[in-house]
Amino acid sequence: MLFTMPHAATPPHTAVLIGRFQPLHLGHLALLQQALAAAQQVVVVLGSAWQARSPKNPFTWPEREALIRDSLPPADAARVRCVPVRDYYDEPRWVQAVMAAVHAQVPPGARVALVGHFKDDSSHYLARFPGWELLSLPRQGDFDATPIRACYWNLDEQPQAAVAQQLGALLPPAVAGWLQAWQASPDYAALRAEWRMLSGYRAAWAAAPYPPVFVTVDGLLLCHGHVLLIQRGHAPGQGLWALPGGFVEPRDTLWQSCLRELAEETALPLTAAALQSALQGVEVFDHPDRSLRGRTITHVFVCHLPGTTLPAVQAGDDAAAARWVPLQALAGLEAQMFEDHFHVLRRCFERFGAGPVPALP
């Protein structure tokens, strides 16, 4: 059950503020300052941690933590604890991770209050934390990170001085200054180009009577302690590691599309019958926010190939590289993986794992 904290109540020990802060804006800062005024300490939960950089999640969690601290007076910053939490694309698991991360910063038995306001459907998570009081605060100005990022990517090619002026009215000075400097980085240029591509992609179907739902397939092939991955050759996610896969062709079944993508992207020298005999099952991934391309539902075909010899592979089509990756190396690739593919691996290992597959975070 979620409680609303009475005004006369004894202040809680810890206030919790959850967000992605991509980037931290003045509305976030006002909530944080009110949380600091209401509790002894504030735990800031930094969402989307360990995600690869993307136009929606351009900044790493250590960068976001530094910007939060740089935007506060030192005495206030000393009372803030920042904890990173992954996007699990699985709300119950995410809630458990948030609660574990917060309670690691709180003395046993101390009262915890969740700070926030119900702005839209994206705020439904505020009701998912039983036992935490709700410190419900009004909206702190007309701030929203989505249009701020749109301004920052500057697809309209506005003069830099105009962009800096707009952002300066919406962001703490430390954040505005850091973003201006970050514009000179290769990451900024790459993500801006990716957002231009994605914006054009979305514009192509904007006139449809309703938003389309895309259907894709991916192949998760395991062999002798390795998994087959490709490195994406084009945006979105150029240079990131992913499962081989792609969109379903109009006249293909899901399985036929999976076989075609494996052949085109990896030149895997196995027959359809050999892959069929190795098939362990199919898992569907349909989280609404799993892809920036639009609502994308993928079907992952999980195959355990027999033997101790890794089949030869060679990158083709949209793949820049194809490689058998040791399973024990996957945890170190988390921040270099496309969209939700790290968590696709995690869930498939949990469901279909046979043999020494790792327990991913």
Automatic annotation (TrEMBL):
It comes from the Bacteria. GO terms for molecular function: nucleotidyltransferase activity. Keywords: Nucleotidyltransferase, Transferase. Residues 200-348 form the Nudix hydrolase domain. The keyword Electron transport does not apply. InterPro entries: Cyt_trans-like, NUDIX_hydrolase-like_dom_sf, NUDIX_hydrolase_dom, Rossmann-like_a/b/a_fold. Pfam families: CTP_transf_like, NUDIX. PANTHER family: BIFUNCTIONAL NMN ADENYLYLTRANSFERASE_NUDIX HYDROLASE, PHOSPHOPANTETHEINE ADENYLYLTRANSFERASE. This is Cytidyltransferase. It comes from Comamonas aquatica DA1877.
